[in-house]
Amino acid sequence: MARPLRIEYPGAFYHVTSRGNERKPIFKSVRDREAFLGYLESATSRYGAIIHCYCLMDNHYHLLVETPDANLSAIMRHINGAYTTYFNVKRKRSGHLFQGRYKALLVDKDTYAMELSRYIHLNPVRAGITDRPEKYRWSSYRAFAGRDSAPGWLFLDFILSYFGADRPASKKKYRKFVENALGQEIKSPIADLIAGTILGTDEFARMIKSKYVTATKTDRNVPELRKLISRPGMEQIENAVDKEFGNQGKLAQTVKMYLGRKLTDERLIEIGKKYGVGDSAVAEASRRLSIRMEREKELAKRVQAVLERIKT
């Protein structure tokens, strides 16, 4: 199995997920979930982790975590390792509890933290467990919504600050922000991933690449790193798109802008200039195409075919 790209630096912000081995449950009782929350608490006191929000499902969990000390690997060894030991001892079992390595997406927090928190808190609703996020006990949503007191280790301030300085008012606005997504077709923020591991603007990805990504011989075995180090140019993308969408002018242009945004170092304004539109039009066209591909599987296959052609 190819090892994932781990980019660590002081103040990095991550969306972390980890699933049960063979997708089996990792939480089988109330006590299990309470124990896991206890390891989140100890991660904050022992390793300086800042937990912004969480959601514990049956066979996986989501965290939004910040690392002032650039030590995500140590934090996750503690959380997953300690919980696995607890789980195995309790049930007199041995072996792996989690499926391979945890997945950590590096996040441009100023752009995506708010959307990611909503995405995480609505997991139980999307899974059909409940119709309202506040009915689900095992997420941080009830604390954000003012239904429960927040534990001392849960950091609400950063996300709630987007909704104002007054705490009761900001919680009310946050509730509305989350409730507005109920029953709506809202694009997952995860759809905007760059190189499979970075969730942020083009400028954020370029900053990460220039400051924190190194290309050693060993590192090149990491697929995500190869994507960051060697990215295609617009001409290569245009040629590949023309072979697949050549007779569909408007759609072909949209696919070019979408892939240009995803795969190159070009700024949105530069991509837009090629097609006579502004940077916001490039972003909006990309968003709409992403939603359309979720509905139209044949279109998604054609775009994937273009991606395969670019890779070769």
Number of strands: 6
Overall CATH architecture of the largest domain: 2-Layer Sandwich
CATH class of the largest domain: Alpha Beta
Instruction: Work out the helix count.
Output: 14
Helix and strand run: EHEEHEHHHHHEEHHHHHHH
Q: What value does the average pLDDT take?
A: 88
Residue stretches low in confidence (pLDDT < 50, at least 5 long) are 215-226
- By CATH, the superfamily of the largest domain comes out as Transposase IS200-like
Strand content: 5-15%
CATH fold node name of the largest domain: Alpha-Beta Plaits
Net shape: globular
Adjacency order of strands in the biggest sheet:
2-3-1-4-6-5
Radius of gyration from the CA trace? 21 Å
Largest sheet: 6 strands, mixed
Total domain count: 2
Q: Which structural class should the secondary elements be placed in?
A: alpha+beta
Q: Give the fraction of residues assigned to helices.
A: 40-55%
Ends apart, CA distance between termini: 22 Å
